[in-house]
């Protein structure tokens, strides 16, 4: 078999066999197939697409490029969730302890932020000492011991995706349905969870810009999950404005802690209850999602979810004093409100620009490996549909220096559209794609 023949076959619109896909993926992962051939192949896939069968074989080949965790000796059902990425998305920090407190083990490998989106690993690293580099053995041992683990992706988890994703990023081949499906699902497969809830975001702060696009992606992943023997369901949720109020690593940890104490933004709480309920239903812990919402709300109300979060922090080396008293978390030296420039209604938000403002402040990275400042970020004070009063704070900026603050201020002002016409509030969810 030769890489060139596989590239030409896809270029000409033919279906690749499982063997050809596996040959290409394992060859590329080992370094036998160079980046320039992989780039040509990615573009051929981007332009020609893949059948469902090819997408499944690609996912399997990518999952098999590294270790596949078997968690069956830890628990019969292990839950996980995956967000396709957004602004202010601290849902994992709330939902994982809630679900674990309800008796369903949660084992999650997760990523760092890239571009305008935040990442759970970065958020957790705001807590001094918190380790996000657990080995697969540590992952399993902690899952068995306390029923919850959230760590970074281990080096050898779907390494094909690590290489391919970096190449897609610079070859204009990110937004391809089979490539996204296989990227996400190969990592989920390798992570070992058996009940997986996908939170597919849509809107100005998401990768998918229309509900139709997001639904197609979600449906393809749910179908693939079923074929691969995992219980997978998906929610298509709004990302046309930040989720909650806080955007930025330590600020988001603080907001998640508040949510675990029944405080904080109502949209975040409602979103988390729905996601947790879906996970509990998928795992067979409850009969349906309304029972799941009740159980999840109870776990928050009686403090079990909070205690689970605290146990997670302690187990992974985090200093619990910083979560017991979140005011001790990293805090930027400059705090400045941006007054609303006019009266009216908040009609629209460019959520990606809010994410970029946090990157401007140093809270995100433009390229992999850049250092970040956990203390900076933005608190938004209005939601779409709210009546805005001129001069009241539209957002509050947490910055480490004035130059960055000014840059972020411009972006934040441009990101908000205030007009005289009232608009309805945005929904939290558009669609649910149930487990099939
Ligand atoms: N998230 C992933 O992990 N992979 C993609 O291709 C897109 C979003």
Describe this entry's structure for a reader.
The chain has 436 residues and is of the alpha/beta class. It has 3 domains: 47 residues, Up-down Bundle (Transferase, Pyrimidine Nucleoside Phosphorylase, Chain A, domain 3); 248 residues, Pyrimidine Nucleoside Phosphorylase, Chain A, domain 2 (3-Layer(aba) Sandwich); 89 residues, Alpha-Beta Complex (Aldehyde Oxidoreductase, domain 3), CATH 3.90.1170. Helices cover 46% and strands 15% of the residues. The chain is built from 17 helices and 13 strands. Strands 1-4-5-13 form a 4-stranded mixed sheet, with helices on both faces. Strands 6-9-11-7 form a 4-stranded antiparallel sheet, sandwiched between helices. α10 links the parallel β4 and β5. α5 crosses α14. It is globular, with a radius of gyration of 21 Å. The chain starts with a helix and ends with a strand. The model has no long low-confidence stretch (mean pLDDT 95). The structure holds uracil (URA). The site of uracil has 6 residues, from α9.
Largest sheet: 4 strands, mixed
Proportion in β-strands = 15-25%
Secondary structure: number of strands: 13
In total, the number of domains comes to 3
Alpha plus pi helix count? 17
Give the ligands present: uracil
Strand order of the largest sheet: 1-4-5-13
